[in-house]
Structures are given as C-alpha cells and as structure tokens.
Amino acid sequence: MNTKRKKLYEGKAKILYEGPEPGTLIQYFKDDATAFNAQKKATLEGKGVINNRISEFVMSRLNGIGVTNHFIKRLNLREQLIREVEIIPLEVVCRNVVAGSLATRLGQAEGTPLPRSIIEFYYKKDELNDPMVTEEHITAFNWATTPEIDDILATTQRVNDYLCGLFNGVGITLVDFKIEFGRVWEGDFSRVILADEISPDSCRLWDSTTGEKLDKDRFRRDMGNVIESYAEVARRLGIMKDMPTVIQGGLH
Ligand code: TMP
C-alpha cells in the first residue's frame, strides 16, 4: 500500500484515499466487519478482497446496462478507482422478502415474499442509529431534492430487477440490499449516480434451494462460516475461481 497518499475518510469497512486525478478516489476494502452500529466488531480475514471483487463485478455489470455508478476500475486485491461523488446521506434499502429489521419492526415472519418490492430510506447518521425517514424528511432537510429522489427510486428499482435476475441465475435469492448514491457535478448541473459498494456486506443473499444465508447475517447472528459464504457467492458468480487457495494462503 502506498503510505504517502492522503486518507480522506475512514468508514467501518472501507477507506477512501485521494485518487490519481482530480475527481477520482481510491476505495480500499478493509477486513473489518461491524454490526448493530459497530457494537459488534471483528476482523474477517479476506473479506475486503472478496467484497472488492464482488462489488467490481456487480458495479461493472450495472454500468453495462446503463446504471451509471462510481466504479472505474479495480486496481489490486483490495482497491478500486472510483469517481468522487458528494455522498447523499441516505441508505436506500430495497426488499423483496421479509427479513431483518422489517421482520422485527412490523412483526412479520422472516422469509415471507413481498407482493412487490419495497424501498425504504434511512438517514445515514451513526449517532442517531440511521433512523428511517420519509421523502418529506429528505426534502425538508435538503438531503436530496424531489427530482433526485425520483431518480434514486427509479435506479433502485432497476438495480433490484437486474440483481434479482443475476443472482437467481446462480441459485441465489436477493432478499434485500442497501445502496447509496452521490452527486456528480457537470458545470452548474448535478446528477445522482450509484456509489459505495454492493457485496454480501450490504445484501441479504439466500441459497434459493436450501435457504442458507450467504451474507453478513452469518456474522450478525454468529452463524460461522462468514468468509466461506462470501467466497461461495463469488464462486457462483464465476469470479475468484481460485478462492479456496487464496484463503489458505492469506489475503493481504
Ligand atoms: P435491515 O433489515 O437491518 O434494515 O437491513 C436491510 C438491508 O440493508 C440488508 O441487506 C442489510 C443492509 N444494511 C446495510 O448494508 N447496512 C446497515 O447499516 C444496515 C442496518 C443494513
């Protein structure tokens, strides 16, 4: 790792460094895992490497179908070059099947398919535990404008449709996922693009046949085999065919 470059931001699972050109950043994937707003923490050796690859794969595919996003190219095992965006402080969650906080909050059985996908917004603010918000809060506090929210909703639906098909094709049900968006400026005009990451840290992925969880719930719920499950997702997507050897050899 180049130690001279400037660290701009360190989050729970990733670090952002300044990029080689203006308007670019380097996104570094750490092995750190947190849950329940960082009350639970661990280092899962190899997680960053796998998530870098899975996010590269998914973001590239999305770029290919016209879902513009921040991904430019993967640089090495843990880093990717991305476009700098002005992050919109929202976590956009899309759900196809009842799970997690939806199950708890509304007392619905986990695993119940939803009649249509549901999109929810959460205000990205650790100190407040990322509270759920409505479009009215978002516009009242100027986190995003109404046209930006419309773009976010339409893009989230497209991402959901595409990813449901992609994962379904490899025997995985996309239960839900969280994405983030950022603004890019072109002269006086800004536009909203998909940013952050898409990986088993930010999705619920269940084996379509057995229902086995292949995502971060294995960590949240102390189910074990977290890295093995992330590697299984990568393997099914046809990436990191050499994964078992790489894990044994250590991922640095
Ligand atoms: P939830 O059921 O806990 O609200 O999570 C919904 C989806 O969002 C799930 O796929 C996990 C993902 N998620 C994150 O990526 N980051 C978070 O901080 C939380 C709470 C959920």
Write a concise synopsis of the structure shown:
The relative contact order is 0.16.
What does this structure look like?
The protein is α+β, with helices and mostly antiparallel strands and 252 residues long. The protein has two domains: 7-85 and 226-248, Phosphorylase Kinase, domain 1 (2-Layer Sandwich); 86-207, ATP-grasp fold, B domain (D-amino Acid Aminotransferase, Chain A, domain 1, 2-Layer Sandwich). Helices cover 30% and strands 33% of the residues. The protein has seven helices and 14 strands. It has helices spanning 47-64, 100-106, 135-140, 146-168, 217-220, 226-236, 243-249; strands spanning 7-10, 14-18, 24-29, 32-35, 40-43, 71-74, 79-83, 86-87, 90-97, 113-123, 132-133, 172-186, 189-195, 203-207. Strands 8, 9, 10, 11, 12, 13 and 14 form a seven-stranded antiparallel sheet that branches. Strands 1-2-3-7-6 form a five-stranded antiparallel sheet, with helices on one face. Strands 4-5 form a two-stranded antiparallel sheet. Helix 1 (47-64) runs parallel beside helix 6 (226-236). Residues 248-252 have low confidence and may be disordered. Bound molecules: thymidine-5'-phosphate. Thymidine-5'-phosphate binds at residues 93, 99-102, 130, 176-178, 202-204.
Strand content: 25-35%
**How far apart are the first and last residues' alpha carbons, in Å?**
10 Å
The shape, in one word, is globular
Secondary-structure-based class equals alpha+beta
Task: Report Rg.
Answer: 18 Å
Q: What is the name of the CATH architecture of the largest domain?
A: 2-Layer Sandwich
User: How can the largest sheet be summarized?
Assistant: 7 strands, antiparallel
Q: Would you tell me the overall average pLDDT?
A: 95
Regions with little confidence, pLDDT below 50 for 5+ residues: 248-252
